[in-house]
Amino acid sequence: MKKLAVSLSLVGVLALPGLAQARRVTLTAQLQNYGGDAAFLAFYVTDAKGQYKKTLWVAGKKVKYYKSLRDWARGSGLKASEFDGVSGASVGSGRALKVTVELADALIDAGYEIRVDSAVEDKRDIPVDVRVPLTTNGAGKPVTGRGYIKSFTYSM
After folding, report:
1. How far from 142 is each of 12, 42, 148, 152, CA to CA, in Å?
2. For the chain, which ranges sit under pLDDT 70?
3. Residue 53: count of CB within 10 angstroms of its CB
4. What is the pTM (predicted TM-score) of this model?
5. 9-28 burial: b if 16+ Cβ within 10 Å, else e
6. What pLDDT score was predicted for residue 149?
7. How many secondary structure helices (H) and strands (E) does the chain include?
């Protein structure tokens, strides 16, 4: 009986790390008051070398405009499997987008970045409007975008 209890305890300890493999991360982008059509945004993760790894969220449902999100489009190959189930409406001027995604713990504090590309019809496209290291220390700290994004934060 004692051996069974020890064995079950050991199995439980070994299983716990498997339960903590992903973390809920909330991404918030506040857009500038730029005037014009709603923005398309692509939130994605890159490795330390800037290579695309994973799509987190795409704001904008018209797939024909995804090519305007250049760096994300190149990295994702615009494969539907990269954005199926992680897309929603575009975001209007001055509005905010807040989405919660699951991120593998292995990506946090390991040299990965969250990047956001933005595009607005009849306006300039902004590849890498936001670029922020994915770290526990960076969580909750606002970052200013280079184009349509006024500020971006992520929280864990």
Report:
1. 39, 18, 15, 5
2. 1-20
3. 13
4. 0.86
5. eeeeeeeeeeeeeeeebebe
6. 98
7. 3, 8
